[in-house]
Amino acid sequence: MTVTNTVQATRNQIKEWKKSGYTIGFVPTMGFLHEGHCSLIEYSAKANDKTVVSIFVNPIQFGPSEDLKSYPRDFEADKIMCREAGTDLIFYPEVEAMYAKDFCTYVDMEGSLTKTLCGKSRPSHFRGVCTVVNKLFNIVMPDYAYFGQKDAQQLAVIKRMVRDLSMDVEIIGCPIVREADGLAKSSRNSYLSPEERKAAQVVSQAIFEGELLVNSGEKSVKKVTQAMEQIIQAEPLARIDYIEVIDLDTFNGIDEIKAPVLGAVAVYIGKTRLIDNFSNQPMPKKRT
Predict the structure, then answer these.
(1) What would the pLDDT profile of 221-269 be if each residue is shown by its tens digit?
(2) CA distance linking residue 97 with residue 8, whole number of Å
């Protein structure tokens, strides 16, 4: 496994691989890896000749009051997990390698995909996500890129960006990986105190209840979201950011469930913001 810190060194290695006809799989991350990240790397390693993982805490997707400075980092542990999961190259740049001092070019997206759910409370977040992923795609030039379904809105935004900008990469969504008690794996879970960690179970419990209701034939969005809300509000340490069931294709709000939907929540447990989701549309089979 190779580690590169510069754009040019990364491009040089990728060009050599492409000359040899190798397929390139790519997993962009912000580090502090867990089993969810490793599952993405393993999917890529099984399906491609070479797998690249980027580890970069992207400053422009954090708001002024968010956790950029305190975001967990452990590159030595990340390297071990990358190697064991089948990574061939880690791209680990400094901020200066990604953003020049006079950087002023961004990729932005209008419409419901970025204005709903997390886009409401994090208005600049997806501009930062689209910009950094665009840059990473330009550097790594992957054939396939792997993203987790836990960040369902991000996955939808990246797919739309790739389509709209005619990018030559296929985006592969991969299933949510959960703890034994159901909590979705997240780097931010490390912020939780033991008491908060126990309280956080209501997030996945609400998701499972919403999913059960929808799959059982409930058509009323109000009834589904109220049932989910009741579970979360029963926990004193939980504060709801949003609970929504929306059209999966458009991300527009709906009153009645007639087509594939995304049920999504964002909940603060103490000061830690956790997200989770479900869909009544099966995940497409991944390329193997």
Answers:
(1) 999 999 999 999 999 999 999 999 999 999 999 999 999 999 999 999 9
(2) 10
**Residue-range domains of the chain with CATH:** 2-174 (3.40.50.620), 187-278 (3.30.1300.10)
* Percentage of the chain exceeding pLDDT 70: 98
Please give the DSSP secondary-structure letter assigned to residue 149.
Answer: G
Are the C-beta atoms of residues 15 and 9 closer than 8 Å to each other?
A: no
Rounded Cα distance between 83 and 80, Å, is 5
Q: What is the pLDDT of residue 75?
A: 98
The span from the CA of 216 to the CA of 214, in Å, is 5
Other CB atoms within 10 Å distance of the CB of residue 2? 12
Q: Give the span between the Cα atoms of 143 and 124, in whole angstroms.
A: 28
> Tens digits of per-residue pLDDT, 92-124?
999 999 999 999 999 999 999 999 999 998 999
The DSSP secondary structure of 159-205, one letter per residue, reads HHHHHHTT-S-EEEEEPPPB-TTSPBP-GGGGG--HHHHHHTHHHHH
Given a contact cutoff of 8 angstroms between Cβ atoms, the answer to whether 32 and 190 are in contact is: yes
Q: Which position among 10, 28, 36, 37 bears the catalytic label?
A: 37
Q: Is 28 helix (H, G, I), strand (E, B) or coil?
A: strand
C-beta separation of 207 from 278 below 8 A:
yes
The stretches of 56-124 forming alpha helices (DSSP H) are: 75-85, 95-98, 112-115, 118-121
Report the run of H or E that residue 266 belongs to, with start and end. strand 261-269
Active site residue 37: yes
pTM: 0.95
